[in-house]
Amino acid sequence: MSTEQTPSTSQPADAPTPAQVARAIDHTLLKPEATRADVAALVAEAAELGTYSVCVSPSMLPLDVPAGLKVAVVCGFPSGKHTSAVKAAEAAESVRLGADEIDMVIDVGAAREGRFEDVQADVAAVRAAAPAPTVLKVIIESAALDDEQVVGVCRASAAAGADFVKTSTGFHLAGGATEHAVRLMKQTVGDALEVKASGGVRTLEQARAMMAAGATRLGVSGSRALLAGDGSGAAGY
């Protein structure tokens, strides 16, 4: 497990602008106490800020969103300990109710045991239930894994037909995204998959560092503060 937590402080001259960072953000609300009014406010804020999508719990579907704003929905969240059949059914129902993207959680324990074939089968079940053009992101909980395990689950996700590997739920006590994890994940999947950094991305500096490491999507709950550059973004989802 990497102990790296602090992004580099220097930014290249071609660092993405706040508007470009916004277009990489899944504006996220996954708190258990979230209400429909909270989600409606999330959608309105996402449209105002120009984020790529909103990311919500499946019980919040269907959503009324403006044209161009995508809807991402979590699956097997946050523990990943659901059976593959349950995850597949949840994903299929979310797609039926309007989800454009599914963010599923793997069985992290299986990854820690090196059961990568089981991880691949789990991802494959969800992929079959939510085929393209639905985008499938696989949450690997990278902070709870060592580097060898991160590589193994990324390869399993690619073999199962995923579109993204994603660092974290934002709920695990081990922590969220790190530059090290994002870089390792991108090195593993290459151009075959994209990488989403999520969990603890609170500042514009951190967002830019994750993108420089290879992330093309960011899971952020405090998007307004992050894009404003005031460093007060929400700590998690």
From TrEMBL:
Broadest EC class assigned to this enzyme: lyase
Enzyme Commission identifier(s): 4.1.2.4
Keywords: Cytoplasm, Lyase, Schiff base
GO (cellular component) term, any one: cytoplasm
InterPro entries per the UniProt record, alphabetical: Aldolase_TIM, DeoC, DeoC/FbaB/LacD_aldolase, DeoC_typeI
Localization terms from the record: Cytoplasm
Molecular function GO terms recorded: deoxyribose-phosphate aldolase activity
Active site: D103 (proton donor/acceptor), K166 (schiff-base intermediate with acetaldehyde), K196 (proton donor/acceptor)
Record SUPFAM superfamilies: Aldolase
Pathway named in the protein's UniProt entry: Carbohydrate degradation; 2-deoxy-D-ribose 1-phosphate degradation; D-glyceraldehyde 3-phosphate and acetaldehyde from 2-deoxy-alpha-D-ribose 1-phosphate: step 2/2
Catalytic reaction(s) noted: 2-deoxy-D-ribose 5-phosphate = D-glyceraldehyde 3-phosphate + acetaldehyde
Listed SMART domains: DeoC (SM01133)
Gene3D superfamilies: Aldolase class I (3.20.20.70)
Any GO BP: 2-deoxyribose 1-phosphate catabolic process
NCBIfam families documented for this protein: deoC
HAMAP family in the cross-refs: DeoC_type1
Family: Belongs to the DeoC/FbaB aldolase family. DeoC type 1 subfamily.
Biological role: Catalyzes a reversible aldol reaction between acetaldehyde and D-glyceraldehyde 3-phosphate to generate 2-deoxy-D-ribose 5-phosphate.
Name under which the protein is recorded: Deoxyribose-phosphate aldolase
Organism, scientific name: Nocardioides bruguierae
